[in-house]
Design brief:
Length: 165
Amino acid sequence: MFAIVRTGGKQYRVAAGDKIAVEKLAGEAGDTVTLDDVLLAGEGDSVADAAKVAVSAEIIAQAKSEKVVVFKKRRRHNYRRKAGHRQQMTLLRITDVGTGAKKAPAKKAAAPKAEAEAKAAPAKKAPAKKAAAPKAAAEKKPAAKKAPAKKAPAKKAAPKAADKK
């Protein structure tokens, strides 16, 4: 069975066992991700309902793609600029393309999110306490503002020698 999925603004035709390189996805090597945006699915010449198809993949590695060289030049102006860019990407191995309940993987993903939120809540409280201490210190010190220094008036140019005659 094959499916056409969209991730990172691009579309990929995938089947079980395929390896693809996509825009960077969150996760580490060995993690399993679900590609939710299935546009089309089918087997052979028949087309299946894409809403019922789930695509799961395993992250092989987080890597960078090949370097793209950006060279700018304006002729006859001695202007040359050379820069390079390497896009972050994720290598995926498609483990399963098939009809399955998408809700089951979503529940697995929801449980770690709830744990992450529980861990994040105490972390948010600690910076709030730290932020309160500097405010108290700032209130203790009187705000001494200095008046901005006034600039001297601009000097007028001396008359030219030709004007003196």
